[in-house]
Amino acid sequence: MTSELLSFGINLPVWALTDAGQAPGGGITGGVLSLYVTVLVVYVQSVTQLLPFAMGMSISRRTFSRGTALIAVVSAVVHGIALSILTDIEDATGGWGVGLHFWTPGPVDVDDWALQIVVSGAPMLAAAALGVSFGVVVKRWGQLGLWSTVVGALLVFGGLAILVSVVAAGLSFAGLRRIVP
User: Residue 8 belongs to what domain range?
Assistant: First the structure.
């Protein structure tokens, strides 16, 4: 959480010294994203660095996998609670007095405390799972496998985005033809 506190420490004076928080609803920053990126990288390293060490200590792959999953779940819950508390403080102080919505920007800020834990913790669990997945790809197929996975995912999801756009445009056009002035 050090990188997030550093990011927060940079954003707060920027918001205080500029009019960034004057927008309706306050200003939004993407600084908390560093938390999720850090988690993703840590779990990539857990597979690429800690798994060989654990196996050298006679820990089975199954035990390592279960332990990693347990740590990911506990970490997601703890961070979800911490982010929920920080969100309550942020909301109570009007965005730290300068309109800064750092810990839960925009649509991620929900009114229910328990739901806020889920909304903040679920992406962390997803980042951990994605990190483990990338770590497995790197450990099994190396850099070529990682880049092939990334490029393949971009092509698949980019293609799906284009397909959805084309279908939506076609349906919109079909609907527009039936509108009566």
Answer: 2-141
